[in-house]
Amino acid sequence: MCGIVAYAGDERAAEIIYSGLEKLEYRGYDSAGITTLCDGSFYTVKRSGRVLGLSQYLGNMCGSTGIGHTRWATHGEASDINAHPHCCNRFAVVHNGIIENYSAVKVELVARGHTFLSQTDSEVVAHLLDEYYDGNLIAAVNKTCARLTGCWALAILCKDYEGFVAVRRGSPVIMARGADGYFAASDIPAVAACAEEYCVLEEGDIALISRSECKIFSDGTTSVSRTFVPVEKEQTDGLGEDCPHYMLREIRSNARTIRATCEKFPLAAGGGLYERLRRADKIVLVGCGTAYNAALSAKRLLCGAYDGFVEAVIASEARYNPPAVTKNSVVIAVSQSGETADTVRAAGILKEAGAYLVAVTNTGYSVITRIADKVLPVCAGVEICVAATKSYTGQLACFHLMASLPDYSCRRRELLRVADEVEKLACDELNSLRIAQLCVSSRAVFFIGRGGDADVATEASLKLKEVSYIFSDGYPAGELKHGTLALIDEDVLSVVIICDQSLAEKSKNAVEQILSRRGKVAVVTTLKSVYDELESRVSAAWLLPPVPAHLSHFVSAEALQLVAYRTAVLAGRDPDKPRNLAKSVTVE
Ligand code: M6R
């Protein structure tokens, strides 16, 4: 949710910051901007639209110090004027987060003669800095932060200082150094190409960074040192003709993610995790979006494995209405990014109430890992597409292993076999395209299933709607007759997932109910008997590899990820950057 990059070094800042912003675009992509500092003057370009829109202006921006931003709008529409950086006299500022009391501060500053140009909450930061600055930069930053409520990561330029200030309060900031200078950014991909080492700023840290020095103040005044660790240069395949979008590339990494998660699990799962889970009076799973949908599957897996009561709760609800926990409860926060504000907040509240906090996350240096008692890694690698795919698969793998403690060797073997099927399935074009063609010609698409298939239906629906913008809903098949049947007609598609033999007869009833009302049906099944029976009667049927029911979500979810992807492409959408969305939702 907004990405910031700052640089102070020996090279031209504009190009370095631009490259960093390109890597952070998954965090927000409605507008972007860069300010460089050169001989005491600012050079600023900011435009609504994608980062690419800045490229033609870089040549005019001198200076080897600068800050940049890619925006996901909260306050004020996406426009040139609302794009960051925001400037006021000697200051230029980029901001990730929300300044909650901006309105009151703005009124006060206007009364003191300040003129505001944008509708953003962020602009008050530049004006406050200007108001408080008396030659002492860190003092002005401290006073400014003391006036604000909300959350922020800031990068600040001051015309009097050939460097920048980075501030972390509630929103992530990493600092990095390489042969050519220092960087600050919202996430590592922004600096991975140029930096050798990075450290994560702690809550409340203020860093003063120039091409030759980096000072960090933990409470605005106390100088501290933070540990730098090497930047892992992740090998990612580029996009190409056979893989034109990150979404497809990441779906094709599902198998690799299962294998990598199985490999890392033994190292992480020690330290009494099994005993905690076995003795837990309650296991509470919290997450948002796809992570919550993975938690629904986790609930089934963990319920079967442990005696305690298991529930899955949506983090944005749990944050205001937290479930009761004790010191014997285990809370599992599920989050690809580890940054999602609702999840972090809910997990924090439950931990404060005494529960033991486990983070299941794809991002090892994230906020959630810093508050968790134990971290279980999802080894999906960097996920760039806004729609979560391989991270969901990795979360499922992690939960299977958790549910099989203490001796998970048998489940691990099963998972590795499933990974082979998942790998083959990822090459499908024919079946996914057939169902995608039905989706794209439908007014609405319902995904239904029973038992574990219902959880996949919920996730498949989220995937389809977010990348294709087609209305969709997903839920248990038995619920159809309790209301939704009223919506079924020849323009509505129902995708029926049937992967559990014991529930197949009942799911077939739902198919009959839809067909009787002239609704279109696509069946996705691992069961040959179901496929043979329905294939000639429905608009499309896809026979998936015959994996056992408890593992079928790996193949059915992947099949429907492919359907969502192909539907988006047929509909002319950009599946990697759906409108209105961003990858890491760091605001509540
Ligand atoms: O990073 P997180 O897993 O915490 O993100 C949670 C949701 O914002 C995320 O899963 C979102 O729903 C995805 N866009 C779904 O594809």
Describe this structure as you would to a colleague.
- The protein has 588 residues and is of the alpha/beta class.
- Helix content is 35%, strand content 24%.
- The strands form four sheets. It has an eight-stranded antiparallel β-sheet, covered by helices on one side.
- Strand 19, helix 11 (367-371) and strand 20 form a beta-alpha-beta unit.
- It is globular, with a radius of gyration of 25 Å.
- 5-amino-5-deoxy-1-O-phosphono-D-mannitol (M6R) binds next to helix 8 and helix 15.
- 5-amino-5-deoxy-1-O-phosphono-D-mannitol binds next to helix 8 and helix 15.
Key terms:
eight-stranded antiparallel beta sheet; 588 residues; binds 5-amino-5-deoxy-1-O-phosphono-D-mannitol; single chain; seven-stranded antiparallel beta sheet; 18 helices; alpha/beta
Short description:
With 588 residues, the chain is an alpha/beta fold.
Helix % is 25-40%
Kindly state the mean pLDDT as a whole number? 95
* Strand order in space, largest sheet: 3-2-4-1-10-9-11-15
Secondary structure class reads alpha/beta
Strand portion, in percent?
15-25%
What hetero molecules are in the model? Answer: 5-amino-5-deoxy-1-O-phosphono-D-mannitol
- What spatial form do the alpha-carbon principal axes imply? globular
Largest sheet: 8 strands, antiparallel
Q: Roughly how many Å is the radius of gyration?
A: 25 Å
Note poorly predicted spans. none
Q: Please work out how many helical segments DSSP would assign.
A: 18
Distance between the termini: 11 Å
Number of strands: 25
